[in-house]
Design a protein that fits this description.
The chain is mostly helical and about 425 residues long. About 75% of the residues lie in helices and about 0% in strands.
């Protein structure tokens, strides 16, 4: 397999500048770029990633013009059309619900982009912090833990974005089943009739471009937070391994010193060295998690609140369809859209919950270690560490919601209650 992999790397080496890091490159170095390079690749593709070009350079202006064009096609133009549609259909609650849930879901995507740019320094600091010495793999077990963590982060990004684009594709083909009487997204513009040729074809082609682009950008904005949390979880798992096996790691350090012709110390020295590194490692993880929360707290808070509104509006749109049999494709589209919304919030809550569970497991890992066979002075390191682990690490959204499965269940409950109230008002 390694020979085949090497052959494939040589064969497609010319594509390296055009593909995310880690697609062709080997993962042997476990470069932290592997966590986020797929996200950065797509953000660069749509002109949403940070750049350091000088304002007087041609690259700066080319990048700026490209970003403005993408923002106009993906953000401003659809929003104008959706707002005009809502203003012209105020008397029909079904039309309002359909237009409003799409408008809100797209608006918080653009809000997340704005927050992403406002927090440029914080996010770049996070990417830089991943390369710190405390987070480097020193043992073969560490490498396996990091490899698994990277696979999880890349899997979530790739398959969630693919699922969203697939869902949008259903919406794009919906006009075929409705005799081209509707558009994938209900929009209207001043001074033009979007349902007459050739304007209908132009708007339809615009939807084919902007709908997948919005989904990919939204998927990147959500899963980049999940990737940061996944990297923190991977470091916690490494720390748990070190605490459960600190005697084994001490013996390995002892053997390394002998192989490198260094003067060996007594065994307690190596044990204390491992425990000191574990405490420093723990401090680094705590700082890293606080940096994650600082960078993404505001965007996550808005997403949680708008998700409740979008979920109940989609349910209300279901109820407004008078003849479901004649609009099967539209119902399928809304069902898939609702599923994507639920999975989108579930991803964040699941990773946040794993962070809490793994950080709580640190106490058990420290207790499971062979601390009973150590001297009292060394045991004090364990006692100090146990005290530090009393409060689990967690990421909150706006200091209001904790990213956890418990919050996810509350979110679903709130959505159902809001939907029940709105459906009663409709009746």
């Amino acid at each position: 397999m390694k020979v085949v992999s090497k052959i494939m790397q040589d064969k497609f080496s010319a594509l390296k500048p055009y593909l995310p890091y880690g697609v062709i490159e080997s993962w042997d170095d476990l470069n932290p770029r592997l966590y986020h390079d797929v996200h950065i690749y797509w953000l660069k593709f749509y002109g949403m990633w940070y750049h350091n070009f000088r304002p007087c350079s041609l690259s700066f202006w080319c990048h700026l013009i490209y970003t403005i064009i993408v923002l106009w096609l993906v953000c401003f133009l659809p929003c104008i059309g959706e707002i005009v549609y809502l203003l012209r259909r105020q008397e029909n609650i079904g039309d309002i619900a359909e237009g409003l849930y799409l408008f809100l879901s797209e608006m918080y995507t653009y809000f997340k982009i704005a927050v992403f740019w406002l927090n440029k320094r914080k996010i770049l600091s996070l990417l830089k912090f991943l390369h710190c010495d405390e987070f480097k793999a020193e043992e073969s077990e560490h490498r396996e833990i990091l490899r698994k963590s990277i696979k999880t982060a890349r899997f979530v990004m790739t398959y969630y974005s693919t699922m969203c684009v697939g869902a949008v594709s259903v919406g794009i083909v919906t006009p075929f089943t409705e005799n081209f009487e509707i558009l994938p997204t209900n929009v209207e513009y001043p001074f033009v009739d979007v349902y007459k040729s050739p304007m209908y074809g132009i708007i339809y082609l615009h939807h084919i471009y902007y709908k997948p682009a919005t989904c990919i950008i939204d998927g990147v904005m959500d899963t980049i937070l999940a990737a940061f949390v996944a990297s923190a979880i991977g470091q916690i798992e490494i720390l748990s391994f070190n605490l459960r096996n600190f005697e084994v790691l001490a013996d390995r350090q002892y053997m390394r010193d002998i192989k490198m012709n260094r003067e060996p110390r007594d065994r307690s020295f190596y044990i204390r060295s491992v425990l000191k590194k574990s405490i420093i490692h723990h401090n680094a993880i705590i700082r890293y998690v606080s940096m994650i929360e600082s960078a993404f707290s505001l965007a996550s808070a808005l997403q949680f609140m708008l998700s409740v509104m979008v979920l109940c509006l989609v349910g209300l749109q279901f109820l407004s369809i008078e003849d479901p049999r004649s609009h099967l494709m539209q119902i399928v589209w809304m069902a898939i859209y609702l599923t994507c919304m639920l999975i989108e919030v579930f991803i964040l809550c699941w990773f946040g919950n794993e962070l809490i569970v793994k950080s709580l497991d640190l106490r058990q890992a420290a207790f499971d270690g062979p601390w009973l066979t150590t001297d009292p002075k060394t045991t004090m390191f364990i006692v100090i560490f146990l005290e530090r682990c009393q409060r689990p690490m967690r990421v909150t959204a706006g200091k209001i919601f904790t990213l956890s499965l418990e919050t996810y269940s509350y979110l679903i409950n709130w959505s159902y209650k809001t939907f029940a109230v709105m459906s009663n008002m409709k009746r």
